[in-house]
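Continuing the batch. This is chain 6 of the set; chains 1 through 5 are on the previous pages. Same settings as before, nothing changed between runs. Recording input and output for traceability.
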Amino acid sequence: MKPTDLHDTGRCQIANDVISLVGDKWSVLVVSTLGNGRLRFSELKRAVEGVSQKMLTTTLRGLERDGYLTRTVYPTVPPRVDYELTELGIELLEPVSALGQWAVTNHARVLDARRTYDARTD
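Output for chain 6:
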């Protein structure tokens, strides 16, 4: 499939439905972090710098709902909760990693473009 094939309204809606969650800043960071293996909530919170507890909880629920990760609760005191990528989540790692690498590689170009644009509009 070519990117231009997504311009069909039905396909556009389908793509938007999936990308709206996985393209979110926190979702990308959580999926990338879990790509290294299963983590507890507290470990994820420390690893995903800048995320609030509420936002991490919301992100994890969305990713679980869409089938990208599993949540396992252990009946201990205090309760232990682990998160791990599913097969679908592992498949998502490749495009997420590619996008992240592209962003790092092209960061300077994006900053230059912003400066050029801002200089024209000021």
